[in-house]
Each structure stands twice: as structure tokens, then as C-alpha cells.
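Progress report, Aim 2. The chain analyzed during this reporting quarter is listed below.
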Amino acid sequence: MAKAATKVPSWISKILLPEIRSMVKEVVKEEISSEVKVLDARISALDSKLDERTKSLDLKMEERFKSLDSKISALDSKLEEKFKALDSKIEERTKSLDSKMEERFKALDSKIVALDSKLDEKTKSSDSKLEERTKTLESEISSLRSEMNARFDSIEKRLPLIERLAQIESRLERLEKQAELGK
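Predicted C-alpha cells for the chain:
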């Protein structure tokens, strides 16, 4: 514009150009404002549609959340019931196993008592047999001692005879040797 203004006479540039500029500004403003109004209308229509869709989606989501909450609550109550049933079954089984174990322990205790009494009887029987055998062995040892003592006494009494017999035998041998030498 600056180039155009240099070619245009000065009175036109002083009077008409500012007037044209102001008119152009007003026309541009009017067109822009009408476009802005159209855009505003479109934007508000889109906003209202968006609000409607958002509300519709919010309602649908709320319904689904409620449906899910009710399903979750139902499942939660079913789970709770199942847990209670399992707990009661576990408790029943535990009691049953406890009673069975108690019965087995009692049976084992009675068997242990019976085995203890049998062991005591056998121990007493073995002790009495051992005592009888010990007495028998002691009497046999005593009789063997008596017999050995008697034999030792007999040997002691015979010892001088045996010595004399040994002397006689040695003399006899000497005499036989002499007789053989004298031949």
C-alpha cells in the first residue's frame, strides 16, 4: 500500500484512503462477526449434541455400573456362602479327623498297656526261670566243688603212695639196666 499511496495524489490518500480503510474494516468486522456467529451457532449445536451424547453415555455407564455392582454383590454373596459352606465342611472334617485320631490314640494306648502287661508277665516268668536256673547252677557248682574237694583229698592221701610207687619204678628201671649190663 505504501507504493500505491505514493502514486495516488495526496488529497486522495489523506481523505479517501482512511475512509476506505474504515469501511473495509467495518465490512471485514461484519463478515467476521457473521462468520463468528455461524461458528458460535455450530459450536453451541455441537456442544449441545456432545452434552446430549455425554449425558446418554453417562446414563448408559451408570446403568452398566449399577448392573455390574448388582452382579458383583450377587457374586460376593455367593462367594461368602461358599466360603461359609467350605468353612463348615472343613470344621466338620477336622472334628471327624480329631475324633478318629482320638479313637486311634486310645486304641494304641490300650495296646501299649496290654503289651506292657505281657512284657511284665514275660519278664517275671523269665526272672523266675532265671532264678531257678541260677539256683540249679549254684547247687551243681556246689556239688562239683564237693566232688572236686573229695578228689583232691583222695589225691592228697594217695600222693605219698604215688611218690613211693614212682620211687619203686625208678629203682626197678635201674635194676633192669644193671641186669642188662651184667649180662
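The chain has a mean pLDDT of 84. Residues 176 and 182 are 10 Å apart (CA to CA). These observations will guide the mutagenesis work planned for the next reporting period.
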